[in-house]
Amino acid sequence: MTNKLFFGFLFFVNMAMFAQVVYNKLDDKGNKNGPWKGFYFDTKNPKYEGAFEHGKEIGIFTFYDNTKSKRVVATREFNSKDNSAYTIFYDQLKNKVSEGKVVNKLYEGQWKYYHKASKAIMTTENYSKGKLEGLRSVFYSNGKIAEEML
């Protein structure tokens, strides 16, 4: 009995060691499906990783700079209900640079831009189908309004 348990345990440990996630697969229609990794052509450094469901991005995609340090420069969280992606851009020190929603690769709704190396909002802008629309507000680093434009 002990031998059976021991060999059963070894079998499962061995399977777990060799089990690997399979990346960059296509479905039967040639669409990206499952976990996916992209690489920079010239350096082969990781460019992004995320997942597709029959050609459509799902969940969170993480984008990296073209260095071996693999610094995150952006994230996109895809929403299948409205075909949008909430996007956040980061500087080299992991501070937010800007954030907002993208629909069909066009800015949509309010976008926030941050003061350098700060959580304080520097500018808010509103977009409709990629075009600047409505109120644009600029703030001092203390949060007080510096300028507003329509």
UniProtKB/TrEMBL annotation:
Domain of life of the source: Bacteria
Family matches, as Gene3D superfamilies: 3.90.930.1
Annotated signal peptide: 1-19
Alphabetical UniProt keywords: Signal
Name of the molecule in the record: Uncharacterized protein
